[in-house]
Design brief:
Order of helices and strands: HEEHHEHEEHEHEHEEHH
CATH topology of one domain: Rossmann fold
Shape: globular
Radius of gyration: 20 Å
Helix content: 25-40%
Number of strands: 9
Oligomer: single chain
Distance between the termini: 18 Å
CATH architecture of one domain: 3-Layer(aba) Sandwich
Strand content: 15-25%
CATH class of one domain: Alpha Beta
CATH superfamily of one domain: Vaccinia Virus protein VP39
Largest sheet: 7 strands, mixed
Strand order of the largest sheet: 5-4-3-6-7-9-8
């Protein structure tokens, strides 16, 4: 499969409210601060020329212009790429989803796209969880009523989330919090029971963060999910490997027959491979672990690498 890079036409000057490098027109209902923040996006690296999320406050167009100069060599990567945010919006609009869970919202960039989509779909809600309580780009906007923010650890608030759902189920889970194997697997195990059949789990950074590769492999092997992983635009300035986005569609709800669990074999395999001479600096320039695991699975080298035996492709 070949992926063609979209190159916008030159010579057309766009207003500040619609960033030059936007992959598509921004949704009309998107909060004004999100539109301004999108103009700090540098598509060549997939980062934002903006201050750190901890120091984010209300800002205006003049501030964004200054950011582009001041932070040109210090881009921020806590928000998903603009293309990924637009993809989340389009995916929800296409499927008509109205109930969304997000873990890890940072300054609320992706949250705003999700909330705009469920609002456009009619009477939707986004429940967003983050351990840090920062300034959020959605504050004071038209879509703020569609967002319920929970300040806490996603693994500790599942009861509160269930109460907020009031018997309904999620259409989409966007899980982008702590990037460790154990934490992400625990999130999926807790919240997939609140996801409807036909709903989707979206994971970000599954190519860049090697400890997330085992999560993707386990979802791929689970008969209850159909899984695809796509490249995403971010380059982290000096890095060649992109973050990647994984989409897992829940095709049946038979958890008892096809359970997910934290696998000690997977968990133990991550550290020695990442630290080996053969695969140094795994998060920088080496081959993604996801590709290595897929290849070794095909070669039948599971026992050599201390991987659990997997079904052949």
């Amino acid at each position: 499969m070949f992926f063609k890079t979209f190159v916008p036409e030159k010579g057309t000057k766009k207003p500040m409210s619609d960033p030059i490098d936007s992959p598509a027109p921004l949704p009309a209902r998107l909060p004004a601060l999100v539109r301004l923040f999108a103009n700090a996006y540098d598509s060549s690296i997939g980062g934002y020329l903006a201050p750190p999320n901890s120091s984010m406050r209300h800002f205006n167009e003049a501030d964004v212009t200054e950011w582009k100069k001041r932070y040109a060599s210090e881009p921020q990567y806590d928000s998903v790429e603009l293309e990924v945010a637009s993809f989340l919006y389009s995916l929800l609009r296409m499927t008509g989803g109205r109930r969304v869970l997000e873990t890890g919202c940072s300054r609320g960039f992706s949250t705003s796209f999700l909330a705009t989509a469920v609002t456009d779909n009619g009477d939707g809600r986004v429940i967003s969880i983050d351990a840090d309580h920062l300034f959020h780009l959605w504050e004071g906007s038209e879509v703020e009523p569609a967002i319920t923010f929970i300040n806490g650890n996603s693994l500790d608030v599942v009861g509160q989330v269930r109460e907020l759902l009031n018997g309904e189920l999620f259409d989409l889970l966007f899980l982008d919090s702590l990037h460790t194997y154990a934490h992400l697997m625990a999130e999926i195990m807790l919240y997939e029971r609140l996801l409807k059949t036909g709903g989707m789990i979206i994971l970000h950074d599954t190519i860049f963060y090697d400890c997330l590769a085992p999560v993707v492999m386990q979802l791929s092997e689970c008969a209850r999910y159909e899984v695809i992983t796509l490249p995403s635009p971010r380059k982290h300035a000096h890095v060649t490997r992109c973050p990647g986005v994984t989409i897992a569609t829940k095709i049946n709800d038979d958890v008892e027959r096809h359970p997910l669990q934290i696998s000690q074999a997977y968990f133990e395999w991550v550290s020695p491979v990442m630290n080996s001479i053969r695969y140094p600096d795994r998060n920088l320039i080496s081959e993604p672990m996801l590709d290595i695991m897929r290849r070794e699975k095909k070669l039948g080298n599971c026992s050599q690498l201390n991987l659990p035996r997997m079904k052949s492709d």
